[in-house]
Amino acid sequence: xxDISLYQVKFEETYSRKELEALGEQLTEAGIITSFMENLVxxxxxxFLPSDQRWEKEWxxxxxxxxxxxxxxxxxxxxxxxxxxxxxxxxxxxxxxFFDTHEDLxxxxxxxxxxxxxxxxxxxxxxxxxxGVIGAGLDNETGISGIIPDKVQELYGVSAWGLTITENKIxxxxxxxxxAYLISVRQCRVINVSLSLWDAGQEEDPENSxxxxxxxxxxxxxxxxxxxxxNDFIICKSAGNDPSLxxxxxxxxxxxxxxxxxxxxxxxxVGPGMDGxxxxxxxxxxGSRTDLSAPGxxxxxxxxxxxxxxxxxxxxxxxxxxxxxxxxxxxxVSGTAALxxxxxxxxxxxxxxDILLETAAETPAGAEAPLLDAAAAVEKAADxxxxxxxxxVWSSQWVEE
Length: 401
Prior knowledge:
three-stranded antiparallel β-sheet
């Protein structure tokens, strides 16, 4: 990754971890490198739970409309500003893989070996579902409504499955490459990460693991370097679907560097309670590290989004499905952030995060973080546009092969 002088070195010989550390120290002392770490490998896990489509339709028809997530965050009122949203916004989705010919999705690109299957060969619709919340066609008389108007939407997807080694494992350099590609090459100002990048189940206390800290430090260096190179971005990260774990049990969420931290929003999931008001979803990770809550659905009402299925002949088709999870909650924040950038492109990532936090509604029952209010956030961004100076976004020197 030339922008930040980050390189991967592969040795033909086999070394122990201690031997690698000794070699790295020698190279550092000789002034050849400034820092080093081993290329860690971890398992990916998705942050959503499938729901029964027929059951949800029956429940929703008698209680809530299918647009309840948009109503909960006042998205319709945010769209009242649509005529002032004229600046295209590039949104990057780092996820499993994408059905890029879905009838209700339009990707600008899905580079870096887009792959829809897990290592086992099982079809994985997760990335397609997340993309639908953010960017399904709006008012196109097809399927569902995503958040970002088509006229300003530039959607890019990087497939983690396409970067994996084997058995759903991905190495650190692949993660860094995918994120850097979206931020530096494609100039995506909003990055959605609805994956858990650390197999928290392999350790009783991942947050105090030496390897976990090294992984977090490596991502901190990546984002710091990209910021120093003049890139502007925010990262919306799902909190995770394990209530026994803190939202901080993920290397992206655990970043503590103040400059980088101000551009990362960790999102927990909420759904409607018996009285219709929002409450923390039973599956959602939470804790003090969460910044915002947003609709993720629950057993009372899931969220309808884009999907892909494969028939007996292996032919894939555009479908829609009800799902729930913090993956979707993060996507609602990402979509709203894109609206803010479109209506006021002079803001930088830190300012966009501040607006989302300052305009959030009350904290739902059981949750740690206030509820996203898309209308209030977009209105504040629109009101402030006239007084904003243009943000400086430098072009990357990384040329795509």
